[in-house]
Specification:
It is built from 3 helices and 4 strands, in the order E-E-H-E-E-H-H. By secondary structure, the protein is an alpha+beta fold. It has a 4-stranded antiparallel sheet, with helices on one face. 17% of the residues are buried. The model has no long low-confidence stretch (mean pLDDT 88).
């Protein structure tokens, strides 16, 4: 079965701060998974990378067979994501 989500040595840095450093993970289609960890562990960064909101510093990732770097807009058509800190909540 093909992976619905694939990350290979995915990394993201903000200046000297490494928010994510070499994450490799595959999630099969239909599989449920959770990202668990303390504040600052990189969970939100992973989601922002997978949704094309942020570009990876290095490594690669794909969602539904689409490269998050090259096909960010097409990835957004395949997923739903609402950040915890998003201005829409106050507008609702």
């Amino acid at each position: 079965m093909d992976a619905a989500i694939r990350m290979d040595r995915l990394a993201r840095a903000f200046g000297e701060t490494k928010a994510l450093d070499g994450l490799t993970l595959e999630v099969a289609e239909g599989e449920l998974f959770g990202l668990v960890g303390p504040d600052g562990a990189g969970k939100t960064t992973v989601l922002r990378l997978l949704t094309g909101v942020l570009a990876p510093t290095s490594g690669s990732a794909s969602v539904a067979g689409l490269d998050v770097r090259r096909d960010a807009e097409r990835v957004k058509e395949k997923i739903g994501y609402m950040s915890q800190r998003f201005g829409l909540y106050t507008d609702l």
